[in-house]
Specification:
The chain is 67% helix and 0% strand. It is mainly α and 196 residues long. It folds into 2 domains: 90 residues, Rna Polymerase Sigma Factor, Chain: A (Orthogonal Bundle), CATH 1.10.1740; 69 residues, Winged helix-like DNA-binding domain superfamily/Winged helix DNA-binding domain (Arc Repressor Mutant, subunit A, Orthogonal Bundle).
Amino acid sequence: MAFSDEELISRICAGETKLFELLVKRYQGKIFTLASRILKNREDAEEAAQDAFVRAFRALSKFQGDAQFGTWLYRIAYNVCLTKLESRKNIFQSLDVAFDADDDDEYHPEVAIEPSAVDTEFEKAETKEIVRSTLSKLPVHYRTVLTLFYLEEFSYEEICDLTKLPIGTIKTQLYRARTALQKLLSQMYSKEEVLV
């Protein structure tokens, strides 16, 4: 029998702490995906996801149930990722760089994607992977709102709860993020290669 999040939280807070593992299993994929999109580094994402679960476990008794547990957990993971980005930024600012680096913001595909005559399912999967790959080239706030809205299927209200931004800002960021994504895709691939 599968327990709801609320039932698990109640039992964990009552002393059955081993049940927290069920919440981890339930949400680990989604939390890792969010962290990966924000941090763009697998090791950092794994560390951030683990840190988010540890923080959630420690704060579980303070969970009020005003929002869904998943939204609350996403908020913790989002904050962990932002903190990690900030510390990463500070580390780079503190380095004394003695040379000018090339502009690495450009995308340089190692292998050109060519149209093929494979079945529709493969083409859909390929297109999805291209979009995911291109998504990682966007600024963090654009990656985050696109991931939450389209990949995790959060509502505007849930994204507002998570990011603490007004709904108008979320809608504006989504519009700008979609526009930036489409522009990147059109620069990288011809219309015959990717149908967006």
